[in-house]
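Give me the fold.
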Amino acid sequence: MKKDKEKMTMKSKMTGFINTVFRSIFRYGKVPKDAEGQSYAVFNNLFLHIHSVKVRKHSIKSTYTFGLGIIAAILFFILIFTGVMLMFYYVPSTKDAYARILDLRSSVEFGFLMRNMHKWAAEAMVVVVVLHMARVFFTGAYKPPREFNWVIGVLLLVVTIALSYTGYILPWDQLAYWGGIIGAQIAAYVPVIGPGLQEFMLGGQTMGQEALIRFYVLHVAILPGILTILLAVHIWRIRKDGGLSHPSENEYPEPAAKHEQQSESAAQAAQNQVAEGEDK
């Protein structure tokens, strides 16, 4: 009997500990059934809070978004993982960069796989982001109140292309060398800031070590940081704008427009009252 009691005590303590850990993470201990409980559960969970409390039925259909935004985010995470793995072997040096790429292809275990995953994920991400922008445009998801998020999406596309271009330079083969020179020459034709932009890209007047270092820093630190911040703002705005767009939301006037209409109506009514008082 004493042993049974001790086992029950240990079991109850373990159950209590597990429940405590579970509640510390999810806060809401059970699946809520009412709207208030569902809102509380979503607000107190980081992963659930990314999504809106309520989701419209049409947005659940796979044919509405084709999951392009999620696919782009997954590809970005794959690029981060494979990119970090490649950084253990790559050296941003004009003397060693190409040799290290050859070693990744032939000598480093799983190096060929990591490099090709990184390469194909980068190219796929550019295509998916372009398709995602096209889907947003053709479904009218850029319309009010989502104009700001559309601008964020355009910036994400620009940063994605910039990441792909800077990564193109890093192998330091013939394609990378001449691709860097052509890109710098194109940048020189940008009005006003063209010459300065070209010098910033090359670190001088020629394509060499300084240029490779700059492309490397842009590719592994600056541009991924900018993209991460923009992606966080993009997801946050989707959440705050009520989730994915729906066809009927543009049929109703915006709150600001309503306020202006009410103000104009009140001003007109006041003018009419003043006019009636003067007539009397």
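The chain has a mean pLDDT of 84.
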